[in-house]
């Protein structure tokens, strides 16, 4: 018998308010977390043995963001994703992945290069054959946090409702939220300034001529 929801991947799906958590509330099924923060696709491969011994109804996967930001290799990512998805299908009745927000290109660094990587990663995710929750339209400040990586609670709820639509789940996960907002304009502006300053400092160090 297939019961429960399991998460694989990175901090987006490992978060306490992740879209998988809201999906579990809507379905009434228990949630098991194998996902961990900072995971790249090779790290998700190491999560797969945790699936053994149980059959799940739904596996929720977020992978690719950390690959795009820190170690992008499209061929490796595609190969790893094929193994991740294939193994997930062996242990779960349905597998749901999420595309990466294009807003990630605002992360401190080379924005154009990051955007191209996000587009490549989303093409690979889209070709995986799984149900894909659309996440590329998430934007700061309302649906993405100031780091341009992690969805706000509002963003997670939006993703949860989209996952529910794909899975024909009722009621909508967002109906389980109390309606309070996690958005503070002052905190958002402060965090954005800190991230921007750090990005400028990194770029200055990277392009500084070596001293003689």
**How many angstroms separate the termini?**
69 Å
Strand order of the largest sheet: 2-1-3-4-5
The global form is globular
How many structurally independent domains?
A: 1
Q: SS-based structural class?
A: alpha/beta
Low-confidence stretches: 188-204
CATH architecture: 3-Layer(aba) Sandwich
CATH class: Alpha Beta
Task: Name the CATH superfamily assignment.
Answer: SGNH hydrolase
Report the sheet-strand fraction: 5-15%
- The average pLDDT is 87
Helix content: 40-55%
How would you explain this protein's 3D organization?
- The chain has one domain (5-183): Rossmann fold (3-Layer(aba) Sandwich).
- Helices cover 46% and strands 12% of the residues.
- The chain has eight helices and five strands, in the order E-H-H-E-H-E-H-H-E-H-E-H-H.
- It has helices spanning 11-14, 19-27, 41-47, 65-70, 74-91, 111-126, 153-167, 185-207, and strands at residues 5-9, 31-33, 56-62, 92-98, 131-133.
- Strands 2-1-3-4-5 form a five-stranded parallel sheet, with helices on both faces.
- Strand 4, helix 6 and strand 5 (131-133) form a beta-alpha-beta unit.
- Helix 2 (19-27) packs across helix 7 (153-167) and helix 5 (74-91) runs parallel beside helix 6.
- The N and C termini lie far apart (69 Å).
- Residues 188-204 have low confidence and may be disordered.
